[in-house]
Structures
1.
Amino acid sequence: DAGVTQSPTHLIKTRGQQVTLRCSPKSGHDTVSWYQQALGQGPQFIFQYYEEEERQRGNFPDRFSGHQFPNYSSELNVNALLLGDSALYLCASSVRGWETQYFGPGTRLLVL
Amino acid sequence: AQSVAQPEDQVNVAEGNPLTVKCTYSVSGNPYLFWYVQYPNRGLQFLLKYITGDNLVKGSYGFEAEFNKSQTSFHLKKPSALVSDSALYFCAVRDINFSGAGSYQLTFGKGTKLSVIP
């Protein structure tokens, strides 16, 4: 049974560029949440997608957007990258958003 | 608003000794509480959760946690530490109001680095 998968594992971009990160949820899960983990910090909630809609959003600017596909996989898009966007981006999946969220290995983004 | 505090940045314990990693929380309704562990360059791995019921929760790898509503705490414990337990531990909370609805997001503490010394 495959767990949560994310791609790519690492990414290097320059300021002002745009990036797309991808996530496939655990089998049987229909909800995807995205978190940003800066170095030395706990994960910060970006948003959650359920039934292809953004259901809840954390305190992140509109440069951060997402999408969920009919097969429940999801993308995180970040526009106009800033140096401060350098972080580990974690995807988590769950059933209807309740109870336990299971995390993927993350995508490490470096913005130069 | 929901929040989590992990007062210790680092905990050192000798192999074979009991370990405790502390966590306190703040919510406006009822808490759903979680512990996750993170190994270097890896994602978060679920250890255990408290939703309702028995205040002592048992999880993976011999870990357990005790929910204390009066002290708003959810400390992680293990009777006998292993060197392989050395990792970064995160406590997280979801705020559930009395009608059963509430926040879907997890709010995490800053993490506690556990070092088990051989």
Note: Chain B touches chain A at residues 4, 32, 34, 36, 41-46, 49, 51, 90, 92, 103-111 (CB under 8 Å).
2.
Amino acid sequence: GAGVSQSPSNKVTEKGKDVELRCDPISGHTALYWYRQSLGQGLEFLIYFQGNSAPDKSGLPSDRFSAERTGGSVSTLTIQRTQQEDSAVYLCASNSPDSRYGYTFGSGTRLTVV
Amino acid sequence: AQSVAQPEDQVNVAEGNPLTVKCTYSVSGNPYLFWYVQYPNRGLQFLLKYITGDNLVKGSYGFEAEFNKSQTSFHLKKPSALVSDSALYFCAVSYASGGSYIPTFGRGTSLIVHP
């Protein structure tokens, strides 16, 4: 597609449930990033995928968080046993080395844990 | 490690006046620097980037930024602010580390342009 697509745009879940957030990057972009934006906070790096290399998971806040990227394209961020502090906007971005526009972000998924 | 500081949580400016949103960075190698803007309930939109070359970078919507290596700064500027420029602005830095480029973002600066 023309841009980075994220779904769902909004998700309300009960504490303790698992959620899956999806990111469809720009076709041909080899790099994909997940960030978390909490109210009044900056962007917190979560995980980075580059081509077929092992992902950089150094930003994942706990082992309840995991992500995969199938076929070098679509990525899914999974949060298990959600907690209220997981409530945030989850942003996905993709990038290629020759991109004029740096990192292209999706509109995000607003996750609310009740 | 790399870091970005945006020292102002909020900047207020009157429409038509020049605006500056400040950003300083810390990185061990040559930095790649970016500015993004975020409107309410939207993702981040790219404004401009510095990779190499001219220290003055021109970007979207009339914005520009100047890379100052000695002061490790990359302040965002616009000669004449518009009310529609009111938004949240993020500065970011990345650099090549083992082949990866993971951008670090500042906390953001809320720009309010008064009519």
Note: Residues 89 and 110 of chain A are 4 Å apart (CA to CA).
